[in-house]
């Protein structure tokens, strides 16, 4: 049976310059459909928005700045989005969907134990965010300034990450604890730590957190000995990095 080719990876917003000449809509004898034009403009606006918000902050990034960064006119912007908040939410949802799919794939393909799968998902999270620091800042830090709808999206995302703990054990040291509250505490702690590093301008260093986050994620379910074993396998410099689709690639800095 012939294998189907894998679909092209969907880029993470902010991974490419919005004004990249290769993405310009070229004139020629073949007419580009209105749908294709709108899709290209939307993706370029996602990139422009992520980079402008990461650089200037949500409050200071103007629609004019976003359009300039994307190489798209204001009328075209308002034909796609109702305003800056709508564009932010669209870019956030799109980027989180890409990131979540990459984490899901890493989780499913790792093995054979739950700790292996959880560590693979964590590693993917850290490395993808490190490969596109602008998206990391937009999605983890500036989301707080983008209004109540954006914060609700963020809270829903954290709730969805609970699925990575569905296969974890009940916790050998305290089996009577409220499991839902325990998982929420672990997810919240991981989010706070990653967000803190991004807020400090350390997004590119996020893979260094893999050992400590692996321990924090697994200790409540595997106990200290099991978490120590999982952490010993969590070397951030072991093997090739996972970069976001279409993110710039190159020699990864060595990690101690």
Map the helices and strands.
Elements lengths: L33 H23 L6 H8 L3 H7 L3 H26 L4 H18 L1 H8 L7 H13 L18 H21 L10 H23 L24
What attributes does this structure have?
256 residues; mainly alpha; disordered N terminus; disordered C terminus
Concise description?
By secondary structure, this protein is mainly alpha-helical.
Write up what this structure looks like.
It is a single chain. The protein has 256 residues and is mainly alpha-helical. 57% of the residues lie in helices and 0% in strands. It has helices spanning 34-56, 63-70, 74-80, 84-109, 114-131, 133-140, 148-160, 179-199, 210-232. The protein is elongated. The chain starts with 33 loop residues before the first helix and ends in a 24-residue tail after the last helix.
The CA-CA distance between the termini, in Å, is 46 Å
Low-confidence stretches: 1-7, 249-256
Q: Report the C-alpha radius of gyration, rounded.
A: 20 Å
The portion of residues forming beta strands comes to under 5%
Please give the count of helices: 9
Please summarize the sheet with the most strands.
none
| Overall number of strands | 0
Oligomer: single chain
What gross morphology would you assign?
elongated
How do the SSEs run, as a string of H and E? HHHHHHHHH
Structural class: mainly alpha
Mean pLDDT: 85
- Fraction in helix: 55-70%
